[in-house]
Sequence to fold (373 residues):
Amino acid sequence: MTKRISHLLLVAASIVVFAGCTTQPTGTIAPAGNNPTASPAASTDNKNLKNVRVQLSFLMQSLDAALIVAINKGYFAEEGLNVSFERGFGNSDTISKLGTGKFDLAFSDMYNALEFNEKNPGDKLLGVAITQSKAPFSILSLKEKGINSPKDLSGKLLGAPAGDGPRKLFPVFAKSTGIDASSVNWTTMEPKLRESFLLQGKVDAISGFSTSAIPSLLKGGKKMENINVFYYNENGMDFYGNVILTRADFAQKNPDVVKAFVKGYMRGLQDVLKDPTAGLDAVMAADQSKLMDREAEKVRLQIALERMYITPEAETLGLGAADPARLERTIQQTVEGFGLKSTPKAADIFTDQFLPAKEQRQVPAQSDRKPLS
Fold:
């Protein structure tokens, strides 16, 4: 962690992090009727636009700023779309619902989608744009546990929900870091109890997303200097984070809709990278529950800005693109970690055919990027 992140995380330690966020915005902010998790219905001004249903990976957070900005600034409307969205309940649940056709597009990870595709070959999902160039997959422990390197995890008790992606991939992480995976025991809990188990000493470490786990540990009274974070991407596993997913058959039948959505989203992401404070403000204003804590979301977004969005690869290939060789390597690791029966090709889970031209999705120059405040 940089000093900047550490400072922000220390500020966040005394704030309430996970606030219930039940209603979400669409092109206009309006009551969502009798469905408390649905985005508001399209206004009459949007009657000529194509309705597109999107699901988030979890509750609306600052990591969704690009989507909110694109809606607020009319980028989707300019492309002929009326975008509405609902909160998610974790990547696996989001993928499952996308596969049933309940949503047209969703934000989740390709690796869980690989497992879904193997089990549901008739409902194949496809990534159409990378939204996070680096994944926040990590193992977290408290320094009081004496786990100061990945090798110190040997013989320890780790905790995570059964469907947690980093947990599934732990055998590969162990192999990459010289740990005997069989020496590590696991206990399972509900996602909302993960950090509590670590704080209460019921486990020695947890697996999960740093962007979710760190704020919860801080809320529990810990300081950043009390926490050890071992990122998978720093230990031989160069995974992508969330992507924009859709059903392959939806993309085939509605290529213009997918292209339009990706184009609008990329414009929103570029705006957030240029002015993350404005992006954070947009998310806070969109929170109809008024329970989100700005400082906590600021911390979350800062981590993403420094670790997940702006990378050398993104600056070379442009936002949204994937390096096929890198993706192939992570697919092979996913097959090993998830115990899949076959090894898909990169083209089986990701395509760049819906991306705008590279010049339209460049990472903003450093001189054009304002600090988050």
